[in-house]
Write a structure and sequence with these properties.
The complex is a heterodimer.
Chain A lengths: L12 E4 L1 H15 L6 E7 L8 E4 L15 E10 L2 H6 L2 H17 L2 H4 L6 E9 L4 E11 L5 E2 L6 E2 L9 H6 L7 E5 L2 E6 L1 H5 L12 E6 L9 H13 L7 E7 L11 E6 L12 E4 L10 E4 L1 H4 L1 H19 L6 H6 L1 E5 L3 H12 L4 E6 L16 H6 L4 H12 L4 E6 L14 H17 L2 E4 L8 H9 L3 E7 L3 E6 L22 E4 L24 H4 L5 H19 L9 E4 L19 E5 L4 E3 L14 H10 L1 H9 L2 H7 L1 H7 L20
Parallel strand pairs in A: 1-3, 4-5, 11-12, 16-17, 16-19, 17-18, 19-20
Antiparallel strand pairs in A: 2-4, 5-6, 6-14, 6-15, 7-13, 8-13, 9-10, 9-11, 12-13, 20-21, 21-24, 22-23, 24-25
Helix pairs in contact in A: 11-17, 15-18, 18-19
Chain B lengths: L7 H17 L5 E4 L7 E10 L31 E11 L4 E9 L8 H13 L15 H7 E5 L6 E5 L4 H7 L6 H9 L10 H8 L1
Antiparallel strand pairs in B: 1-2, 2-3, 3-4, 4-6, 5-6
The chains are: A alpha/beta, B alpha+beta.
The complex binds zinc ion.
């Protein structure tokens, strides 16, 4: 520390209410626009139960008729809000401080401070409001001329008001004042008067003679032993105004109220100014507030969390999820969910409902792939569309769905791709070859770019390509299909890397009579089939194509599909999480659970009895979509392989040897769920 | 289970009365009235508390050492920065009780999130015994905090604030027994959870009169 006989001050600390930034932004956008002319602003401070040594400001700072809040005193300032960060940085801070300092000294010289003592409580702010990022750069200064230092009498300890008998009347005298004074003078020999500065200083001739009786009072926002910075400005003015006081001991009274409204903790500093206080062109000024690193420099605050509408929406949306995490599932990993990119094949009833549920869970990255348009019958079940979309006549589902997703959650990233999914057995004409090649490349890269893939299309054949790609690129694949009053939701077995054998990751461990299938050995949608997906749409009437479903079936299946994905994402093995099944009905053993409970391979349910069963089935080594042979062939030949499959589904059967197999006996590999006749629905 | 509820007129009347007492005691509660509609007036109180959550020093990246005039008369500023809490006592039309909303911000205007608020009040619970609050069990665990504090949209301002769950308020008010001013009772009950401690003088205003 410095010379103990030099009086030190507690610097003022800026305290900015968030509403200040709101108002500043509002004014900048709607009034000032490109003007960066200085603006008068206000702030306030208190000496009632004061903490630290604060100067506070809020939205009211910009009011011409500013009124300090109850128990606060006003401070007078100027805002220099720059248009760019470059202007902000380039601004000559020394010059600005000098400019503001001279304004203050001018108010001394012209005695404006006598009429309006709040001019002594002085500040200014240099700022730059980046309204696109909600970053605010700001630097407060409390200008004061660098005057000769004040020496402290009696060592360095101030006296407490309670220890000064001649001021014992002050407490009750102040109580009688409705408006508490900010700067004032009291005399020890006059017990009934509180003088304004103007009362005694307008004609300052006799001041020096009375100096023993005088106490120069000020509302002191400091909670420390040091007086607040305000006294520094105050003292500069007093010794400038009353040069006769130079060389005399002068008493300053920092008025401070405690939480019980008593002012006996107020402090009195007895000081001596040995050199005259004069101002000229070369008078230096001080007062820039250090930043929070305690270095000279501006501060920066990001107000994004409370000002950016997108963030506000997001935090509102996430609130329910956070409450779930806070109250019920502390280990829930919401970041994983927010970071998982979902690709939805199909934007019909299932696609819309899956998207809705994904949004509800906090998924933010949704991509749609669909080639349909919104028709009049769609909006009733396809929950992302409205009648107006149908009237428009040309609204593509994929694009409209993506638009709606962003309307529901502005922070979501969503795009729609209008595209037909090529299907086995659906021959591609020569004219379409190039287009199909491009589409295949697009679909392939979309699969690669996403983490989870939903198969929500209206036909079995259209699921073949996404199944194959999902397996090849080791994506989580969730499949949902609907019957009239039944549904199937399943996860496909995890794909394995190019060089690894299928399902070599974790050794499945049975639990009693519960059989375990490792996630890599679970079947896909096509594993349970013995035939390749021929052209199931061919030779059908329209009615047959559009499988009629009970309206709730799609909502139920879509919900299960999303919940199944979430359960998987919360499991450390993700899609490699094993599934369990009991060969003989109900098991007595408890099925191992993930964070959110069991993770079945498939959920098959029906509304006729409101029941679900959770079968788990092995991967079929001759599957026409996920078997090693197929994947290897695709890896080797790429699109050329796909074109052969599109040419004739028989190609796949021959390749996997399934045609021989089928000739053997199809009943053997039929699964025991014939009571649940699954069919796929047209997306109505 | 007995409960105590207030209708809007009672809330407004007792809030006004409470504000008058505050003024008499030179405390700084204010009553903000947006308009005459039911529910559109609330009590406001502000106070500063020590920032116990921000450990990391800071992020002010720009520096301007050119502007540092050697000045022996400025005492070093304290490193302990303060937080400001803004409390609102708002009327809940659906629960028919007062609800305590609040938000906390730093000296730069940035807002604390609810997790940080929990940490503040949880830490605060450890040494709350020296306050002059009425006796309520002081929350100590995260689970306690979760069960009493949540984020809600402020009914008048429409912005997210932290709130103390109103669901048990009517019950607690009933347990507190006869009350001359239920706003005062409410603040005495809920306040200590969030460092809002009314001075004993408030109670005396009623015992005297
Ligand atoms: Zn398969």
């Amino acid at each position: 520390m410095s010379d103990p006989t030099v009086l030190q001050y507690a610097p003022l600390q800026s305290f900015v209410n968030p509403t200040f930034w709101h108002k500043l932004s509002d004014i900048k956008l709607n009034h000032d626009r490109l003007s960066d002319a200085p603006k008068p602003i206000f702030a306030y401070y208190t000496n009632f139960n004061a903490k630290a040594c604060l100067l506070e400001t809020d939205y009211a700072a910009f009011n011409g008729d500013f009124m300090a809040p109850r128990l606060y005193y006003p401070a007078v300032g100027t805002l220099y809000n720059k248009n760019t960060i470059e202007d902000f940085k380039a601004c000559d801070k020394n010059e600005l401080l000098r400019l503001e300092g001279r304004k203050l000294v001018d108010d001394f010289r012209t005695d404006r401070v006598l009429d309006d003592p709040k001019l002594l409580a002085r500040f200014f702010v240099l700022s730059f409001a980046d309204l696109t990022t909600y970053n605010y750069y700001y630097w407060f200064a409390f200008p004061c001329p660098l005057t000769p230092t004040l020496k402290v009498e009696n060592g360095s300890s101030p006296q407490s008001l309670s220890d000064i008998p001649e001021l014992q009347h002050l407490e009750s005298l102040l109580k009688s004042q409705t408006q508490k004074p900010n700067f004032f003078i009291v005399k020890s020999n006059e017990k009934d008067t509180i003088y304004t500065l103007k009362d005694l200083l307008a004609t300052s001739t006799a001041i020096a003679e009375q100096s023993d009786e005088l106490y120069f009072g000020f509302a002191d926002p400091s909670e420390y032993e040091h007086p607040s910075w305000l006294m520094r400005v105050y003292a500069a003015y007093i010794f400038y105004k009353c040069p006769d006081l130079v060389g005399k001991t002068v008493k300053f009274l920092g008025l401070r109220y405690d939480s019980k409204n008593k002012c006996d903790k107020s402090l009195v500093w007895t000081v001596l100014q040995t050199e005259p206080v004069r101002f000229d062109e070369s008078t230096p000024f001080v007062g820039w507030e250090p930043n929070r690193n305690n270095k000279m420099g501006p501060r920066m605050v990001s107000m994004r969390d409370s000002m950016d509408p997108k963030i506000l929406v997001e935090s509102a949306i996430n609130l329910n999820l956070k409450l779930m995490k806070w109250r019920l599932v502390p280990d829930l990993n919401l970041d994983t969910i927010a970071n998982t990119k979902c690709l939805l094949f199909g934007a019909g009833t299932l696609g819309c409902n899956v998207a809705r549920n994904l949004l509800a869970w906090g998924f933010k990255h949704l991509t749609f792939l669909d080639n349909g348009r919104v028709s009049y019958s769609n909006p009733l079940r396809q929950t992302l569309y409205t009648h107006a979309d149908a009237i428009a006549g040309n609204a593509m589902k994929a694009v409209t769905a993506a638009k709606r997703v962003k309307e529901i959650n502005p922070t979501a990233v969503s795009t729609g791709h209008v595209m037909q999914i090529p299907m086995p057995g659906h021959t591609i004409g020569a004219s379409m070859e190039q287009q199909t090649n491009e589409d295949l490349n697009t679909i392939k890269s979309l699969v690669e770019e996403h983490d989870a893939i939903f198969l929500l299309t209206d036909s079995r054949e259209s699921r073949w390509l996404p199944t194959l790609l999902g397996n090849t690129f080791q994506k989580i694949v969730i499949n949902a299909a609907l019957g009239f009053d039944s549904y199937l939701v399943m996860r496909h077995g995890a794909g394995s890397p190019n060089n690894a054998a299928a399902g070599d990751a974790a050794q499945p461990i049975d639990v009693g009579d519960l059989k375990c299938i490792g996630g890599g050995n679970l079947g896909c949608y096509f594993c349970n089939d013995v035939t390749a997906p021929g052209n199931s749409l061919k030779d059908r009437t329209l009615d047959q194509q559009c499988t009629v479903t009970r309206p709730g079936v799609s909502c139920i299946a879509a919900s299960y599909a999303v919940e199944l994905l979430v359960s998987l994402l919360q499991h450390p093995l993700r899609d490699h999480a094993p599934a369990y099944y009991c060969a003989n009905g109900k098991s007595n053993f408890k099925e191992p659970e993930g964070l959110l409970g069991v993770i079945p391979h498939s959920i098959r349910g029906q509304l006729s009895n409101f029941e679900n069963i959770l079968p788990a089935t092995q991967k079929f080594s001759q599957c026409i979509a996920c078997s090693e042979k197929i994947i290897a062939e695709y890896r080797a030949q790429g699109n050329a392989f796909l074109f052969k499959a599109f040419e004739t589904a028989k190609y796949l059967e021959d390749l996997t040897g399934i045609s021989d197999f089928k000739a053997l006996d199809s009943a053997i590999i039929d699964f025991d769920d014939s009571d649940l006749e699954m069919s796929e629905t047209e997306d109505m | 289970m007995s409960i105590v509820t207030l209708n809007w007129e009672e809330f407004l009347q007792e809030a006004t009365q409470f504000q008058k007492i505050s003024e008499r005691l030179n405390d700084s509660w204010t009553l903000y009235k947006k308009d005459e509609q039911e529910g559109n007036a609330y009590l406001i109180y502000e106070q500063k508390i020590i920032n116990t959550v921000d450990q990391k020093s800071c992020t002010d990246v720009l520096e301007d050492t050119n502007y540092c005039i050697e000045d022996v008369t400025a005492a070093m500023p304290p490193s302990n920065y303060l937080l400001k809490i803004e409390y609102h006592i708002v009327y809940s039309i659906s629960y028919q009780v007062p609800v305590l909303y609040f938000r906390i911000y730093r000296n730069d205007g940035s807002m604390l999130c609810i997790e940080e608020a929990w940490r503040i009040f949880r830490d605060y619970g450890d040494n709350a015994s020296n306050t002059n609050s009425v006796d309520v069990p002081v929350p100590r665990t995260a689970a306690d905090m979760l069960s009493i504090m949540t984020q809600l949209d402020h009914p008048v301002l429409g912005k997210p604030y932290i709130a103390i769950h109103p669901c048990r308020t009517a019950e607690l008010l009933a347990q507190a027994g006869n009350s001359r001013n239920r706003i005062l009772t409410f603040i005495s009950l809920m306040g200590p959870y969030v460092q809002l401690n009314l001075s004993n003088e408030y109670g005396k205003q009623y015992t005297v009169s």
